[in-house]
Every structure is written in C-alpha cells, then in structure tokens.
Amino acid sequence: MDYIFYFAVTIGILVFVHELGHFLAAKICGMRADVFAIGFGKRLMGWNKITGFSFGNLPKDFDGEGHTDYRLSMLPLGGYVKIAGMVDESFSTDFADKEPKPYEFRAKPTYQKLFVITAGVMMNLTLAVLIFWGINFYQGKLVRETTTIGFVTEESVAHQAGFQTNDKVISVNGKEVSNWEEVLNGIFIDNIGNEVKVNILRNGKDTTISLPSKLIADQSQQGIFLTSAFVKPVITDVLENSPALDAGIEPGDVFLELNGIELNSRFEATEIISSNKEIEIPLVILRGKDTVYTAVTPGFEGMIGVTIADGAYLGPYNYQTYGFFESFAQSITNIGQYTILTFQLFRNVIFGDVQFNQVFGGPVKIAKFAAESADTGIVSFLFFLAMLSLSLAIINILPFPVLDGGHMVIIIIEGIIRRELPVKIKEGIQFAGLVMILMLMAFVIYSDLISL
User: Which of 4, 199, 284, 392 is deepest in the core (most CB within 10 A)?
Assistant: First the structure.
C-alpha cells in the first residue's frame, strides 16, 4: 500500500506540473483548452462549469462552450491537455474539415505553438530547480570528511576491480580528493565515458587502480560499488510476524553492533545474521539520538525479516552551506551534472554498455524508489522527485512522436514550409508513436517485474 500511495503522489505531482505548463501557456496564448486530464483513457470523474462535478464519461454531444473539463482518467501513467485545433493523444480531429478558429492551436504563429508545446518541459525543469534550490539553501550539502573506503566483500565488483577495505583514495585521474563527494564525482561524473585511474594508499604504499568506462557505467546504476568508511547499515523496512519485529526493530534504526562486532556495512550484518540461524544474537541500535540494546534470533533460513541499506554515515563531516543566490547557482550546476549523466547513460544503453533495465524504470521501480526515499525522510523524497522531474523533462523533449519533442519537430517543419502538414499524416505519426511508446512501456514494466 505504501508503494501504491507514494507512486500516486509522485506521478500525480509530476504529471500535474507538466500539464499545468501546457495549460497555462495555452491560456496565455489565447488557445482553448477543452480537457485537463490526469491519466489516460476512460474518464472516471471530473468537473467543469457546465455540468459541475460528475462521474464517468461526459455525454457524446457535450459541448464545453470553451470551458475546460478537469478530469481524472483510468490509466494513471501520465496525462494530457486537449487543446482545440491540435492533433494529440486524443486523436480528435473533428476540426480538420473546418476553417481554423482564432482560439485554435493551428491558428497561432509558430513561436506560440513552440511556447505551448515546450511549456510542460519547462515546468518540470522549474520544479527540479526549485527543489534543488530549496535543499541547497535550507539544508546545504553534507560533506563526508573522509576518502577511506569502507567494507569490501571478496565477492563484490569493487574487490574484483582491486579495492580493499580501508584503502585511502588520494586522487582520481590525477586530481587530488579531500572528501567522499569528490571521490564519487571524480569516478562517476567528472570523467563520464572515460577510463578512470584511482590512486590509493594501502598499508603505507601508493597503488593505482584502473577502472574501465564500462565498469563505471554498469556500477553507476547499482549504488553499491564503493561505500566510505563510517557507514552503518540502516533498516528501511521490517516485515510483519518477523524475528526483527519481535526484537523491537523499527524502520530507520541504525545497526551499530551485531553479536559483539562493530558493523561497517550491510554485508557484514547479513553475513552475521545468516551464519547464526536460530541463535539469539545481541544487537546494539542507534534510534534517533538513543542507543538501544536488544537481541534478535534469525529464523532457520538465516533471515530476520528486514530490508537493510548502507545509509547511515557516522564519521567526520561538515555541512557546506549556500546563500540564497548561491543556492540557485548550485541548483543549476546540479541540473547540468545530472543532465550530462543522463545522456551518457542513454548513450551507454544504445551502445550496449549498460543493460536497459539499469537505466529505465517504470511504475514498479518508481513506486519502490518513491516509498524508500519517503521512508528515509522528506528531503530524500524531494530529491527523488526532482530527479524524476528532470528525467521527465529530458525524455519529453526527445524528438519522438507523441512526446513534446516530436510535436516540436512537426511545428518547426510546418513553420519552415509555411503550411500545415495534412491531418492524416500527423494522425499516422501520432498513432505510430503511441504504439511504440505503449510497447516500450510494456517492456519497461516487464523489466521492472523480473528485476524485483
């Protein structure tokens, strides 16, 4: 139920903001917006000035007389604004054989059409900028004052690449690093698409580790390639009727010690739990500012019924704060970095360097990540919302039929040739694009389900 709720909240916000951009731009340009819909397909409920609030579809002969019908539709995977005189996802072309009306999309100049069609993307970008701006201003950025690598298991990709527990990173591609954020940026952002050489200090000796670009691309989607020292496992979920629930463990708890061993990774925790089946083991928990002592007995399968993540950093740190305008500049920098990273990931998918399901996620993944980020805190959820809003803007501006970028290409072509393309051609383009999008969505959902 948490997944469903947070999925609905996340998609509702993003779709509303996107479609509000189209709607407001259409109104500014004097266009008539007949429908403002959240979701696709059958109208479940809605409101307009003619009928008031109503359930189900409107009568077939309904004429809104220029008033917008604000509706919630059956398929909650997007939304649309139906603008009079425009060939869109509704495939309504009753206007095709009539002279353009002044309030219709097709009657407006090219610059106004482009403004309306890109307004949704601009609103999503604006939402992302505002969230990053707020986070940077009110919270700043936590800078982990360490370059020491945390626990590395022998089976991990990090170990196979050459890293070991307690390695201290000195430089990345020749650039010295002084905190963990500089380590991650140097490996995953500043040198996208290139081989990265990491200079480390191990037992007093300098060692250089080479990371192929493909390895970095693969691991950028995993989030567990390298963890810093001082990171403790945190509980994100506790199952009903589980040993963890019986032991009083709660979501948000941080595991400090398990069976007398100080923990530095979730891998250590799961290893200790799995090797003590049906044996009571002492546990020390950090809950807020309180230290809690308890004990837990793993089941016969070596589990206690929790979801564990590496999320609690308890080492030296400081907060990098920003002023009001500096926070805005930093948010623009954030947008630029994540946009470059997104296009690099697209490139890696096209060239087969990264698996499709590592980059693209559908409703299942969105619901999962939305719920997990919300459980971590409001800032984490807002950050996830900003990243998703930015992704929606980037995807929508791609020159693909049905997407805003596809509409934009048609508008530019019509502006160049100074006449409209035949409605049948635009209908065909839209239909072909819609079929491909639906097929892609089905594949994404399938990939989501098999990756659970």
Answer: 392
pLDDT in tens, 346-358: 776 676 655 655 5
Q: Could you tell me which residues come within 8 angstroms of residue 107 by beta carbon, excluding any fewer than 6 positions away?
A: 85, 100, 101
Instruction: Count CA within 13 A, CB hemisphere, residue 214.
Output: 6
* 8 A C-beta contact, residue 82 and residue 37: yes
- Asked whether the CA dihedral 180, 309, 14, 325 is positive or negative, the reply is negative
pLDDT at 360 over 80: no
For residue 233, the SS3 value is: strand
The pLDDT assigned to 393 comes to: 92
> H helices within 175-219, ranges in order?
180-188, 213-219
d(CA 172, CA 176): 7
Cα 244 from chain centroid (whole Å): 30
pLDDT, tens only, 9-55: 888 899 899 999 999 999 999 999 988 998 888 889 999 988 888 89
- In this predicted model, what pLDDT tens digit does every residue of 86-139 receive, in sequence order? 877 666 667 767 888 899 998 999 999 999 999 999 999 999 999 999 988 988
Mean pLDDT of 408-413: 93
Q: How far apart are CA 76 and CA 139, in angstroms?
A: 33
> Hey, what are 95's tokens?
């206007």
Assess contact for 390 and 345: CB atoms under 8 A.
no
Residue 221's pLDDT is what? 52
